[in-house]
Amino acid sequence: MASRKLSRRQRWRIEKIQEERLTRAARKAVRLQEGPSDQALYPEQTGTLLARYGAYVLVEDAMGAHHRCLLRQNLSPMVSGDRIIWQRARNGDGVVVALTPRQTLLARPDREGQMKPIAANIGQIFIVVAPRPGIQLPLIDRYLLAAEITGITPLILINKIDLLNADERVALEHSLDEYHRLDYTLLYASTCQRHGLDTLHTHLHGHTSIFVGQSGVGKSSLINALLPEANARIGAISTHSDQGRHTTTTSLLYRLSKSGAIIDSPGIREFGLWNVSPQQAFEGFPEFRPLRGLCRFRNCRHRQEPGCAVRAAVDAGRASPRRLESYHCIVDSLSV
Ligand SMILES: Nc1nc2c(ncn2[C@@H]2O[C@H](COP(=O)(O)OP(=O)(O)O)[C@@H](O)[C@H]2O)c(=O)[nH]1
Ligand SMILES: [Mg+2]
Ligand SMILES: [Zn+2]
């Protein structure tokens, strides 16, 4: 019975020990949430986020090596192409501790209509079209406008030119000449004949780029043709993470052999127009931009209004009637 009768002092000690255990456990829980403690980390360094896999991200350091990292809590959402500050852990995964300001950001609305970032710091958008499934100029106009609104340089890439005979090629170049006159870059390629890939490499050099366009135009084929073998490793690393496998919704940043990168993401391929006002659409047509404010009516829709500067430019041959029609189609589609 003696054991039941604990002295005040003994009771105090037991309580104290339990308290310490609780505190230690709580601290450990916080550590598990936050990743490695500061003492276990090397100094901060810069990096590029290549991909996200659940709670983990794949980070490329300044030397080009890949590291699996956890994200510190309370950081804003990060996406492929983000430049980040991270710390290597003495053992195991590193930790991303900060996001640096973005030059550009591609986003799209999720099911709830909230804008969701999909890729950052993209410098160029390649609008890929092909004779099969067919080249539709209004679709090119939509993509060009979306790129203009995002502030990212668009280029037009015509793939599968092996499907065209000489006459068809001339006719196509003729129909695309209006884009050339607007200073957009036009590139011709055939992935299967490996034609035009050197020129394409020149344009990709030193930039982070994406390919957008209809299904079947050859985006995947192009990316495969352009990328060095080493990139297959990115997919391989993802399978080692415990959380989330390499899913089709993941954006991946692939390095090109010299300088430059391609970001591949299903989300980006659906890149389009959301929440765009007629005024923003107007500004996104470079040939209309200098005419802003020159119409007689401030709220001119550039249709049948008298004193319309845009209509006058079209009538005088300074702007393409087809592009104005495209602008109207886009504005109509935005207002429904
Ligand atoms: N004739 C021809 N076919 C191509 C070329 N590039 C891709 N294709 C074919 O076009 C189809 C769609 O290609 P894919 O890369 O999957 O298109 P994606 O949907 O844009 O990714 C495939 O059957 C490819 O083999 C090309 O340069 N010439
Ligand atoms: Mg594809
Ligand atoms: Zn007008």
Descriptors:
6-stranded mixed sheet, alpha/beta, binds zinc ion, 5-stranded mixed beta barrel, binds magnesium ion, 11 helices, 336 residues
Short description:
The chain has 336 residues and is α/β, with parallel strands linked by helices. Helices cover 33% and strands 23% of the residues.
Walk me through this protein's architecture.
This protein has 336 residues and is α/β, with parallel strands linked by helices. Helix content is 33%, strand content 23%. The chain has helices at 8-34, 137-150, 166-175, 177-181, 197-204, 219-226, 232-238, 266-269, 278-283, 309-315, 321-334; strands at 41-53, 56-60, 66-71, 83-89, 94-99, 105-109, 115-120, 124-129, 153-158, 185-188, 208-212, 252-255, 261-264. The strands form three sheets. Strands 10-9-8-11-13-12 form a six-stranded mixed sheet, with helices on both faces. Strand 1 and strand 2 form a beta hairpin. It is elongated and about 105 Å long. The chain starts with 7 loop residues before the first helix and ends with a helix. The relative contact order is 0.11. Mean pLDDT is 87; it is low at 239-248. It binds guanosine-5'-diphosphate, magnesium ion and zinc ion. Zinc ion is lined by residues 295, 300, 302, 305, 308-310.
Report the helical percentage: 25-40%
Count of β-strands: 13
Count of helices? 11
Q: Spans of 5+ residues with little confidence (pLDDT < 50)? A: 239-248
Q: Structural class, please?
A: alpha/beta
| Cα-atom radius of gyration | 27 Å
Strand order in the largest sheet: 10-9-8-11-13-12
The oligomeric state of the chains shown is single chain
| SSE string, helices as H and strands as E | HEEEEEEEEHEHHEHEHHEEHHHH
